[in-house]
Design brief:
With 128 residues, the chain is an alpha+beta fold. It contains 5 helices and 7 strands, in the order ααβαββββββαα.
């Protein structure tokens, strides 16, 4: 099998040095139980305008819209997840996608609907 790496260091190196179209796939987050039941998929790539809930860290249980997705750094920025600097200005706190759960999907994109149909219940019914 090609591309399978067992050493952790090599695996991290491949992840950090991956091209952007592959890095985009690392920015996926689990769906909420309601969305899993509705669409039949376990996870989805995070994109702008999705509503997510933080499930790890000191900002746990915070919910908000995704404002920005930084593919190069592998981070997402969520509305309401901010901190105040010493000079009084507020800045967004970047989060890793695996530390959030998608609560509401932005389905204004036809390609995203196709992905859900391909990975969801309809595809599983066709296999069996």
């Amino acid at each position: 099998m090609r591309g399978v790496v067992t050493k952790p260091g090599k695996s991290r190196k491949m992840q950090f040095n991956a091209p952007s179209h592959i890095k985009r796939k690392f920015l996926s987050a689990p769906l909420s139980p309601e969305l899993k039941g509705q669409h039949g998929a376990h996870s989805m790539q995070v994109r702008r305008d999705d509503t997510v809930a933080v499930v790890k860290g000191d900002r746990k249980l915070t919910e908000g819209k995704v404002l920005r997705v930084d593919v190069k750094k592998g981070l997402i920025y969520v509305e309401g997840v901010t901190r105040t600097r010493m000079d009084g200005s507020t800045v967004q706190i970047p989060l890793r996608a695996e530390n959030v759960m998608i609560k509401r999907l932005a389905l204004d994109d036809a390609r995203r609907k196709e992905i859900l149909n391909r990975r969801g219940f309809e595809a599983k019914r066709g296999k069996g």
